[in-house]
Amino acid sequence: MPKKEEKSSGAPEWMCTFSDMMSLLLCFFVLLFSMSTIDKKKMIQAVGSVRAAFGGRPSPYTVETIQDEHTPPELSRPAQPERRLSYAKDELRVEEQRKVRSWNLQNVIQVTGTEQGITFRISGDALFDRGKADLTVKGIYALTKIAEELIQFPSNPILIEGHTDNTPTPDQYGNWLLGANRAYNVMKYLVEMGCPFGQVNPKRIAYESYADTNPVPDVDENTSIGRSLNRRVEITLVQTDEGDGSYFRDPLVKNPRTPLIHLDDENL
Questions:
Q1: Cβ atoms < 10 Å from Cβ of 231
Q2: Does 215 share its domain with 90?
Q3: What does the mean pLDDT of the chain come to?
Q4: How confident is the model at residue 57 (pLDDT cuts 50, 70, 90)?
Q5: What is the domain range of residue 39?
Q6: Tally of structural domains, the chain
């Protein structure tokens, strides 16, 4: 009679391959764990959750936030608001530039980001006739559009600057007075007329004249093109640390640098 085959003792052959694979996976995860950064608080909470899932007691405590002992607090705190303001300024600048193109006023209004906030640079030749301070029809349209943007930020201060070219005038202070009157008339329109949605709060606005002392950078002010670029009015929506902004808190800051003096046409 043929002999019966003896049954092999021990685990099946596939179990060896499976065990080797599990060992390699364990080594792999141990390696990943050793290279990772462990958050003590999250680690304790995770262990407590696993323990509770298997019928044990969850972790009875949590670890307090660990303070950074290497970076002084006074150096780390200001970085966050500065970054937030910078991002907000860039986003607003891009949005306002898009709106200016939609108004078809890109040749009249330039929107730039400055240290103070967002600046609307308006061509003086579009706002006024040469040597005059009275607003033109095209200038009124541009200011109406800008007013629609300014009233959306009801708490931010607004600075209006009048600039002229370097053309000499019979009066020694002619360009200073011309810049002041132009800035004043722009401020007056924003406060009294504004836009269909309302007027700009006068408590928010200050104006000043720079005459020809602050030309546009990298522009030859002795050429006709350079003089045309320097004849401008700049309206700056000031961005502050208080979120939406704040009025001028110091009354002296709001006072105009140059007092209002109406010009006679003969003195220009």
A1: 23
A2: yes
A3: 76
A4: low
A5: 17-53
A6: 2
Q: Is the same domain home to 141 and 261?
A: yes
* DSSP 8-state symbol, 148: H
Q: What is the pLDDT of residue 86?
A: 55
- Close Cβ partners of 60 (under 8 Å, ≥ 6 residues apart): none
Q: What average pLDDT does the segment 104-109 reach?
A: 94
Question: Of all helices (H) and strands (E), which one includes residue 121?
Answer: strand 117-123
Please report where in the chains the tokens 């720079």 appear, as a residue: 210
Q: What is the mean pLDDT of residues 46-62?
A: 56
161 and 251 in a common domain? yes
Give the pLDDT confidence of 118-165 residue by residue, as tens digits: 999 999 999 999 889 999 999 999 999 999 999 988 888 999 999 999
Say yes or no: 147 and 102 in one domain: yes
For residues 232 and 193, state if they share a domain.
yes
| Residue 250, domain member (yes or no) | yes
Q: Are residues 111 and 36 in the same domain?
A: no
Q: What is the pTM of this model?
A: 0.61
- CA–CA distance from 267 to each of 43, 139, 149, 262, 264 (Å)? 80, 24, 36, 11, 6
Going through 129-228 in order, the beta strands assigned E by DSSP cover: 158-163, 205-211
Angle ∠(231,232,237) on CA atoms, nearest 5: 165
> Is residue 1 assigned to a domain?
no
What count of Cα atoms within 13 Å lies in the side-chain half-sphere of residue 247? 11
